[in-house]
Specification:
The complex is a heterodimer of chains A (147) and B (393). In chain A, 38% of the residues lie in helices and 17% in strands. Chain A has five helices and three strands. In chain A, a hairpin with a 5-residue loop joins strand 2 and strand 3. Chain B is α/β, with parallel strands linked by helices. Chain B contains 13 helices and twelve strands. In chain B, helix 1 packs antiparallel against helix 7, helix 3 runs parallel beside helix 4 and helix 7 packs across helix 12. The model of chain B has no long low-confidence stretch (mean pLDDT 96). Classes of the chains: A alpha+beta (147), B alpha/beta (393). At the A-B interface, helix 1, strand 2, strand 3 and helix 2 of A face helix 8, helix 11 and helix 13 of B.
């Protein structure tokens, strides 16, 4: 059901990890629906994305779109990164099954959320960048289960 | 060589070689229509009748109480729809459970749209219904109780005998979906007061597209398929002769090997459960610990998502299944896992592995070793795990 590129990015995801003291961090999705993406951006003084890392809880497509999204924004300016759409992510992966299109949207939103965090921290505004819509719903996983 | 370990026997099983062998002549030389008069074809009628005897014998039923269908879903549909219609003058209330297969749940919803009232019983954290809930749900208008024998996802076996007794004492028809249980554990219809029972061929090393509905003599349920006189006019259509031969052969085989299989599979099952519990942290066994199908293992692994798990297992040649939303095509994880009280995110991280008689201890070791590694990899990738470690360090 997945293309070779999706499988490759799922099985060998690029840029997995965290960045300490990141310039911007964005987390989108929610565990209830089964997808959470977190993107870390390291942005230099010229507003170039020097490094990017991600962590994702989700299906194969969620991991692959996160991985591809990080590849597409790495080395770009924050303005160029903002233009990386879910469509671009999907195309770069040679397509996604229709039920998985929302994963690519989530990847786009995660990048935007991380950029938003960066602009908030630095008191700047980027035209076209809006406050991220979806946030992870906290506090639901802390049930007292017998683990 | 890449390994291939098939642990999805609750989805379907490998057709046994002797089953295929028994079926083959009925595709070729014995192609005759069992309803034909000439001697060439009448042998097929006899062959069908023999399979009916085999199945009836295993269930402690009579041959004329076995009706061949195209499988478990058809049997479930028939049992519910036809019983609802036949007993509509007595009442319009049906009792079933929240953890039934969709063949029951969606049929029940269909009946609700047509004026029937349905009570869906809750289950406890192990997936068992509470008998007091069942008793409390009974109304003067209750015409049917349908409770699955054993659950397809978590393997929990219901207290069917007690349910049957309650139904019997109250004069209510009792149907059980035994698609997962039949051929795996002993079932006696009289002992459990079962009035109707659904079963399927391909879950017990038989062919796909064939199953049966047991209907106790005296139950006035009507035809499901109208047409010819096949299946005592209740299910018309030229018989699927090779399928019926295959089903009968598989049932006979399953009955003969049941005791040994139950012992071997439940030992391996418990070995696997033990290793996973001990070696993979933050996991939960889903389903009842002992009252469960001998071949069913179902775990939830926190902080990981089921589809990812399945794809990575597939990469290692292991076939399993999951109740995560991504594998169902909807946004919600399995209704069974939610019914036993799992929060959504934990239900998303479920994995079902169902063994067969061919599964070896070596296979189990390889699977658990792979699983450990994969769960570790996915957790390292999971923001939920990252948060968990930060808040618990």
């Amino acid at each position: 059901m997945y293309t070779e590129k999706v499988m490759d990015h799922f099985q060998n995801p690029r840029n997995v990890g965290e960045i300490e003291d990141a310039s911007g961090v964005g987390t989108v999705g929610n565990a209830k629906c089964g997808d959470i993406m977190r993107i870390y951006l390291d942005i230099d003084e010229n507003q170039i994305i020097r490094d990017v890392k991600f962590k994702t809880f989700g299906c194969g497509a969620a991991v692959a779109t996160s991985s591809m999204a990080t590849e597409l924004v790495k080395g770009k300016s924050i303005y160029e990164a903002l233009k990386v759409t879910n469509k671009a992510v999907m195309e770069a992966l040679d397509g996604l099954p229709p039920v998985k299109v929302h994963c690519s949207l989530l990847a786009e939103e995660a990048i935007h959320a991380a950029l938003w965090d960066y602009t908030e921290k630095n008191g700047i505004k980027i035209e076209g960048l809006e406050k991220p819509k979806s946030d992870i719903h906290e506090g639901e996983e802390e049930e007292d289960e017998e683990y | 060589m890449k390994r291939f370990i098939y642990l999805d026997n609750a989805a379907t099983t490998k057709t046994a070689p002797e089953v295929v062998e028994a079926m083959l002549p009925y595709f070729t030389e014995n192609f005759g229509n069992p309803s034909s008069v000439y001697s060439f074809a009448s042998g097929n009628k006899e062959a069908i009748s023999q399979q009916r005897d085999v199945i009836a014998d295993v269930l402690g039923a009579k041959s004329n109480e076995i009706y061949f269908t195209a499988g478990g879903s058809e049997s479930d549909n028939w049992a519910l729809k036809a019983a609802a219609e036949a007993y509509a003058d007595k009442g319009n209330h049906i009792i079933t459970t929240k953890i039934e297969h969709h063949a029951i749940l969606h049929t029940a919803e269909y009946l609700e749209k047509r004026g029937f009232e349905v009570t869906y019983l809750d289950v406890d954290e192990d997936g068992k219904i509470r008998l007091e809930d069942l008793k409390a749900a009974i109304r003067p208008t209750t015409i049917l109780i349908s409770v699955m024998y054993a659950n397809n996802e978590i393997g929990t076996i219901q207290p069917i005998k007690e349910v049957g007794e309650i139904a019997y004492e109250n004069g209510i028809l009792f149907h059980t979906d035994a698609v997962q249980a039949f051929g795996q554990i002993p079932i006696q219809v009289d002992e459990c007061h079962i009035d109707m029972l659904s079963a399927s061929g391909h879950k017990l090393n038989g062919p796909k597209g064939i199953g049966f509905l047991y209907i106790r003599k005296g139950v006035k349920i009507r035809s499901f398929v109208h047409g010819g006189a096949q299946e005592r006019k209740r299910r018309a259509g030229t018989e699927n002769v090779p399928g019926i031969i295959g089903l009968g052969t598989a049932v006979k085989r399953a009955a003969n090997t049941m005791e040994a299989r139950m012992k071997k599979e439940s030992e391996l099952r418990d070995y696997m459960i033990g290793r996973i519990k001990e070696e993979i942290p933050y996991c939960r066994l889903n389903g009842h610990k002992t009252d469960r199908l001998p071949n069913n293992v179902n775990f939830s692994f926190r902080f990981v998502e089921g589809e990812s798990l399945l794809i990575m297992l597939d990469g290692k040649g292991i076939c399993g299944s999951s109740g995560s939303a991504c594998t169902s095509g909807s946004l919600d994880p399995s209704h069974v896992l939610l019914a036993i009280g799992l929060p959504h995110e934990i239900a998303h991280g479920s994995l079902r592995l169902t063994l067969s008689e061919e599964t070896s201890k070596e296979d189990i070791d390889y699977v658990v070793d792979s699983l450990k590694e994969i769960v570790g990899t996915l957790r390292n990738m999971s923001p939920l795990y990252e948060d968990f470690l930060k808040t618990n360090s």
